[in-house]
Amino acid sequence: MASAALELIGFFLGLLGLLGTLVATVLPYWQISAHIGSNIVTAVANMRGLWMECVYQSTGAFQCETYNSMLALPSDLQASRALMVISLVLSVLAIGIAALGMQCTICLEDSGAVKSRVAGAGGGLFFTAGFLALIPVAWTTHEVVQTFYRPTVPSSMKFELGECLYVGLASALISMLGGGMLCVSCCEERDGGRGRRQGGGYPYPAGGGVPGGAGARTTSQTYRNPTLQAGGINPASRGQTLVRSGTGSSELSVHGLQGAKKPAAAGYDITGYV
């Protein structure tokens, strides 16, 4: 049950990370113009993203313009686009693969350990997708900070960190956490099954007491047979004695008693060494 709960939590964390990565990829709030310097103009705010550049005016007008040529873009922006798209594709694949291998689904039920391995593969894809999304977010954050503190750049050309960078960072970490939980749950399930198979045993100790040995105890108890008492069978015709030897084997010796008068109830004398 613990592994199933970890799988569900990891799956939903990966799904949440996918949604956050999609939002961070589409929206243009990666870089926002910084209002600093002596001549502060707050009537216009510039925003840059992976796919477009937008301008927001104080009157409420919001205009966006997509980048016309992909090859004319800087190399870091092209790499950021590619990494974010690959991260989204891997997250979608991870959702499908993890859904097949989770314990709460009926797919691959008769495959044994293959089902847990499929769930672990989905967790690995979630982890990889989160790591790929983390690279462009950290890269852009570094470039924005370095440009902001560079003295040669004019104040009107400086940008601050946008909301998409925070969303992308949180989504990447959540995806990596969900993928790790899926992998850990599958490992715990395999270890637990192996431990259960090896947990056999017997209640009797190995090697019984040896008659005449040091520390050996002999216990004897006689049990009366109520059937013989109720049926009125003459117990004098036959007597049985069950003797247990110290080596753990049982020997049954039947001694016929003739001409001897026994009590009204027959019994079994069990002698054993503890």
In short:
This protein has 274 residues and is α+β, with helices and mostly antiparallel strands.
Individual helix count: 5
Largest sheet: 5 strands, antiparallel
Estimated radius of gyration: 40 Å
Which percent range describes the beta-strand content? 15-25%
Total strands: 9
Biggest sheet, spatial arrangement of strands: 4-3-2-1-5
- In terms of per-residue confidence, which ranges show pLDDT below 50 for 5 or more consecutive residues? 192-223, 235-262
**Residue-averaged pLDDT:** 74
Helix content: 40-55%
Based on secondary structure, the structural category is alpha+beta
CA distance, first residue to last residue:
42 Å
What oligomeric assembly is this protein in? single chain
Shape: elongated
Q: H/E element string?
A: HEEEEHHEHEHEEE
Describe the 3D structure.
By secondary structure, the chain is α+β, with helices and mostly antiparallel strands. It is 47% helix and 18% strand. The chain contains five helices and nine strands. The chain has helices at 2-26, 75-101, 113-148, 163-197, 226-231; strands spanning 31-33, 44-48, 52-57, 62-66, 159-161, 218-224, 239-244, 250-255, 267-273. The strands form two sheets. Strands 4-3-2-1-5 form a five-stranded antiparallel beta sheet. It has a four-stranded mixed beta sheet with strand order 6-9-7-8, with no helix packed on it. Strand 2 and strand 3 form a beta hairpin. Helix 1 packs antiparallel against helix 2 (75-101) and helix 1 runs parallel beside helix 3 (113-148). It is elongated. Mean pLDDT is 74; it is low at 192-223 and 235-262.
